Amino acid sequence: MLHLLLFLLFGLACVAGAVNLLVQRHPINSALSLVVVMGSLAGEYLLLGAEFVAAIQVIVYAGAIMVLFVFVIMLLNAGEEERTSGSRVALLLGVPGMLIGAVLVAWLLVERSATPAVAVGALPGDPQTIGWLLFHNYLLPFEVTSILVLIAILGAVALASQPGMEASAKKEG
Amino acid sequence: MVPLSYYLVLSGILFACGVTGFLIKRNIITIFMSIELMLNGVNLSFVAFAAEWQALSGQVFVFFVMVVAAAEAAVGLAIIIAIFRTRETLNVDYVNLLKL
Amino acid sequence: MLSITQFIVVSIVKIVVALGVLLTAVAYTVWLERKVVGHMQNRWGPTRVGPFGLLQPLADGVKFIFKEDLTPPHVHKPLYIAAPMISLIFALTAIALIPVGGWISVAGLSTPLAITPDVNIGLLIVLGIASLGVYGVALAGWSSNSKYSLLGGLRASAQMVSYEIALGLSLVGVLILAGSFNLREIVEAQSGTFWGFIPRWNIFAWPPQIVGFLVYLTAAYAETNRLPFDLPEAETELVAGYHTEYSAMKFAMFFMAEYANMITVACLASLLFLGGWSGPVAGPAIVRALLPVFWFGLRVFVFLFIYIWVRGTLPRFRYDQLMAFGWKFLLPVAIANLIITALIVALRS
């Protein structure tokens, strides 16, 4: 009973944040609603027994990636969205289309609701077990993703640096 | 007790909101955030199935999704800054010429 | 085991006591700082209000309440009002995860001396709350709609995010030694002594975490925006950085958040590196339960004194020096500490 109540609470916060992201016209409001979505998702992960994943969601996603988004919005001084003809067409076609698709999928899922209930804490999502899996069974993907992050760092630095900076740095010497 | 289909419906709703945002928004940063919303919906699916099938691989895969999302966010935002420097606009409707 | 109503009542009592102690500690840390920095600079510090100026924080509080709460017309109102609240909420929430002693039994109810009993990932949640605290600073700088605030907000949040990494990595050495993220278990792994007289604290353990402690200290100064890393809020540099446009109660909230962050960081350092609440205990049962809290408070006080001592002594870093130091020196040192600790522990077992 409490499990259902907490699921509904976090679920409502998720959906409210997601809908607010779509409705708001200023990107900073959308970014903050996305932070709310990520926080409520961390709550959902806790309900599924994935405590380490929930903590990492808060630290990495809500605490680092979204801060990056907020930085870029502040740096580029993004303003409110304007209504163009393209956006009106997309609104008219996109929203009903997505609604139909989502209702269809949801109806299919609930119809086949012979799925068993998920008990809280049945699966030990503690750091030790996940660490063991990560460094024994999934060692290769782990190393490959570390190389991916290195490439992303190099790419971001190369893309964001001004083309004239090298020349002016050489001049100042 | 919460049946698995509830978690999947929530994941589907988040994914649908992400796709809708990707289609209807014109500000490139908001489009990017809709992509992140889609990735979060998928993460919830992974963790829900990990709990149902008692397999921790679902939770480990969420790590890899997060790492890839972080790398993608970093590079994507750098691209946005580079585009903004030349076009002076964040509206995707106006970034429609190949010539700088 | 406590029943549900007993648990709720005990938790409310603990929250009230903890918040009261924390807010008083914040107020008197300000007093301590003004006195200590004053004496270092060969002057008295506050002496007029009460004996030794001990009522000065009270006078400051009254001043903040009565000052005019001015909202400039050009700000983005919802975020302007929300940003100091966000800062303060996350600064005060971290205290919920910090255990200050063992167990205490009063009138037949036994409860651990922490607001949240035994969280398996306590350390990770504290780090998560610290990383969420960046939003208060970033949003304050942006919503104030003025160039000093925006620059100060951007610089402060970039600095906090960069030093968070070194902070987290410096703690992994401790985690390897203790084998758990649970703060209580980390403290219990440091009980006992080596050879009878050296306490088994993590800075004396084998491998000694002294490098980790120094990296943690430095990263903590940057994380809480204190000298020598307080460029984003220095008066001579950016007027007042991200809290330029704030007055009265909202400014007081930022102020309280900064000192509450200092106290949280000091508590974490005491738990992870300095042995937590270990110390000689004696006497009847209730004194036995409360004496570790005194030892813990002593360590926190020493750490805060070092914080204030460094503030009075060192000059300020320039922003590019600050970022270069964090990424090019502190991060490699933290990683090297982690590698060496992991090697020694792996070769030992």
Can you summarize this structure?
Chain A is mainly alpha-helical. Chain A is 78% helix and 1% strand. Among the domains of chain A are: 1-80, Up-down Bundle (Four Helix Bundle (Hemerythrin (Met), subunit A)); 138-173, no CATH class.
3D structure, described in words:
The complex is a heterotrimer of chains A (173), B (100) and C (349). Chain A is globular and about 50 Å long. The longest helix of chain A is centred in the middle third of the chain and has 27 residues, at 85-111. The mean pLDDT of chain A is 84. Chain A has seven helices and one strand. With 173 residues, chain A is mostly helical. In chain A, α1 (2-23) runs antiparallel to α2 and α2 (27-47) runs antiparallel to α3 (51-75). Helices cover 78% and strands 1% of the residues of chain A. Chain B is 77% helix and 2% strand. Chain B starts with a strand and ends in a 13-residue tail after the last helix. Chain B has one domain (4-94): Helix Hairpins (Orthogonal Bundle), CATH 1.10.287. Chain B is mainly α and 100 residues long. Chain C has one domain (72-348). Chain C has twelve helices and four strands. In chain C, strands 1-2 form a two-stranded antiparallel sheet. Chain C has a two-stranded antiparallel ribbon with strand order 3-4. Chain C starts with a helix and ends with a helix. At the A-B interface, α1, α2, α3, α4 and β1 of A face β1, α1, α2 and α3 of B. β1 (117-118) of chain A pairs antiparallel with β1 of chain B.
Q: H/E order of the elements of chain A? A: HHHHEHHH
Order of helices and strands of chain C: HHHEEHHHHEEHHHHH
Adjacency order of strands in the biggest sheet of chain C: 1-2
Distance from N terminus to C terminus of chain A (CA atoms, Å) equals 69 Å
Largest sheet of chain C: 2 strands, antiparallel
Helix content, binned percent of chain A: over 70%
Low-confidence regions of chain A: none
Q: Can you tell me the CATH topology of the domain at 1-80 in chain A?
A: Four Helix Bundle (Hemerythrin (Met), subunit A)
C-alpha Rg of chain C (nearest Å): 21 Å
Estimated structural class of chain C: mainly alpha
Count every beta strand of chain A, where a strand is a DSSP E run of 2 or more residues: 1
Instruction: Work out the number of β strands of chain C.
Output: 4
Shape of chain C: globular
Q: What's the rounded overall pLDDT mean of chain C?
A: 87
- State the fourth-level CATH superfamily of the domain at 1-80 in chain A: NADH-ubiquinone/plastoquinone oxidoreductase chain 6, subunit NuoJ
Helical/strand content category of chain A? mainly alpha
- Main sheet properties of chain A: none
| Mean pLDDT reading of chain A | 84
**Estimated share of beta-strand residues of chain A:** under 5%
Quaternary arrangement of the chains shown? heterotrimer
